[in-house]
Specification:
There is one protein chain. The chain is about 50% helix and about 15% strand. By secondary structure, the protein is of the alpha/beta class. The protein folds into 2 domains: about 5-175, 3-Layer(aba) Sandwich (Rossmann fold), CATH 3.40.50; about 180-285, 6-phosphogluconate dehydrogenase C-terminal fold, CATH 1.10.3660. Helix 4 links the parallel strand 4 (about 70) and strand 5 (about 95).
């Protein structure tokens, strides 16, 4: 059987990394799958669950002979993780990541990467509020977008290989520059998380609030705030790494909320309805 890659090494066997490992195994995309990281117990469990063939806490051993290295660690760790492994990566190998922030990662890596090793920034748009390989599933990326962020320094052959890899697991590949990526996802992904976290905190901080009232929360509150159950550490790092774009998105949200508040305070029914209708029409178009 001909494999797409001989040896794929994955750092960070969480929801994304674990789901990728399942797809790689099921689809036969690599002869060998290795996991590497800092937590031997987690890596051992991933091996026992059949996600990987071998595991290492020594990154140099973890990537030995790997021709594709996928970095699925928290976004704040990704640049340093890549820089740490660079001296040990074999010539011709490709490194890619799955982080939802791109500028801070790509710029740091491209400053240091040697010409014999290739890096492609990546961001699969898939997942849930759950984390850990226990939540991983096969087919997570099927019919989902995956953004790749090549630059003028990107090797086109390496880009094509990573593109075909994501297509093999069922994703629709979109090419985008790093600044556009971070601006777009500040609005459509990062801001909604900031709002969901803030909304839950606002409700729990309301005067005379009693926690028992949450048992009466209807579908709207539960559905809207589902993402507030996401990993706090991961979202802390995203907030800091995409700081400028997120702050800009929050400013636009504050203006929109202030407009609604003013209309309600004025009792302006037509303006309130117009505000809701604009949102209604936009959402239905999606």
């Amino acid at each position: 059987m001909k494999h797409m890659f001989n040896h794929i090494a994955i750092a960070g066997l969480g929801l994304i990394g674990g789901s990728l490992a399942r797809d790689i195994r099921q689809l036969g995309l690599a002869a060998t799958i290795t996991g590497f990281g800092r937590n031997p117990e987690r890596l051992k469990k991933a091996r026992e669950n059949g996600l990987i063939d071998a595991w290492h806490t020594d990154s140099a051993q973890g990537i030995a002979q790997a021709d594709l290295i996928i970095i699925g660690t928290p976004v704040s760790r990704i640049p340093q993780q890549i820089l740490e492994i660079l001296p040990h990566v074999q010539q011709g190998a490709i490194i890619t990541d799955v982080g939802s922030v791109k500028t801070a990662i790509v710029e740091q890596v491209e400053q240091r990467i040697p010409p014999s090793v290739f890096f492609i920034g990546g961001h699969p748009i898939a997942g849930t509020e759950n984390s850990g390989f226990e939540s991983s599933v096969g087919g997570l990326f099927k019919n989902r977008p995956c953004v790749l962020t090549p630059t003028d320094k990107t090797d086109q052959n390496a880009l094509e290989k990573v593109k075909k890899f994501w297509q093999a697991v069922g994703a629709h590949v979109v090419l985008m520059d790093i600044i556009t990526h971070d601006m777009i996802f500040a609005g459509i992904s990062h801001l909604p998380h900031m709002v969901a976290f803030s909304l839950v905190n606002a409700v729990t901080d309301m005067e005379n609030f009693e926690k028992q009232i949450l048992q009466y929360s209807a579908g709207g509150f539960r559905d809207f705030t589902r993402i507030a159950a996401s990993d706090p550490v991961m979202w802390r790092d995203i907030a800091l790494m995409n700081k400028d774009h997120i702050l800009n998105a929050i400013s636009f949200f504050e203006k929109s909320l202030a407009q609604l508040k003013q209309s309600i305070a004025a009792g302006d029914a037509p303006l309130i309805e117009q505000f809701f209708k604009k949102s209604h029409d936009t959402r239905r178009a999606i």
